[in-house]
Amino acid sequence: xxxxxxxxxxxxxxxxxxxxxxxxATIVNPLNLDLPFLPHRDPVRVxxxxxxxYHADMAAWQANSPWTPFxxxxxxxxxxxxxxxxxTPFQAAAHLRTGQIDLTYIPAGAYxxxxxxxxxxxKALAVTQPLIRQGLIVADSRSDxxxxxxxxxxxxxxxxxxxxxxxxxxxxxxxxxxxxLDDVQRELFPLPGSFQHHTSSRASAYxxxxxxxxxxxVIDKSDYDEWPDKAGSALLRRFSKExxxxxxxxxxxNVARIPQGVFVISGAEKPAMAxxxxxxxxxxxxxxANLLSAIGxxxxxxxxxxxxxxxxxxxxxxxxxxTRATDQSGGxxxxxxxxxx
Length: 341
Known about the structure:
Blueprint: H1 2-16, E1 44-49, H2 58-64, H3 68-78, E2 82-87, H4 89-98, E3 103-107, H5 108-117, E4 123-130, E5 132-133, E6 135-140, E7 156-158, H6 164-176, E8 196-197, H7 201-209, E9 216-220, H8 221-226, E10 244-249, E11 253-254, E12 261-265, H9 271-283, H10 289-295, E13 297-301, H11 307-317, H12 323-327
Parallel strand pairs: 1-2, 1-3, 7-8, 7-9
Antiparallel strand pairs: 3-12, 4-12, 4-13, 5-11, 6-9, 6-10
Helix pairs in contact: 3-10, 5-11
């Protein structure tokens, strides 16, 4: 029997990639064997109070959750497995108080209500700031395109198809300026009759500045703001402000995939781990930009002194959308069941 357990353990280690120097995933142990010799660490459990309805199919929600990049990066930063669990506001308070969940993201309105009823539930670590995007309609500075009206009859470089800023908002800006989409020249290749779409703001900028077929299009304002005033380079695919002429801008779009809210850590969490989590949240950005954009957050800020007042303002801005989770969670009849192992 001992040999069988050892063989099974080796197979599980190989399948999970546990031969790596750093262990970053939960060990698969379907038979619940006692394996004291494995480098097992209890996971850090992160509860998420969802913006929309409560998802009964947890596996499907986790597979498609915008929180996946966040979980992966936090897991690497802490060096222990991280498990994401969807919870209701009622469950969040109970699990934070008992330590069954280490960290929870709670929408602003739900946190205000929870903290009024249960001030011992946990400690606020960080507050979200929503990601606001805006596009700039720009033309090659060497072109004769000086006004939005001059776009008529020209080929226009859009960003990814259906992108809220680089496609949808850009088309609206053109139409608001009196430039009908029928006035924009269509792409010849690969799909006749289609608009010219590119994979990113950077790809669109390259088309406008350095390609020969297109001299006007839309880019992200945040990209433009980071460009130097001069010294663009086609060879290095580098752009400068002097390379383009700004003709107009799109409306500002809030691209948040989660409501504004707060990360709360359990009072039962060890101080060292709490400090690690706090450092990760407050320094997220730069290399962690993908995890922020996935959830539509610009950054995480330290909680202000007037946290309740700020969160009430956030809740009002979100138009009460956080209450959908509360309304559909079953209310006071829910039991605070522990998160799945």
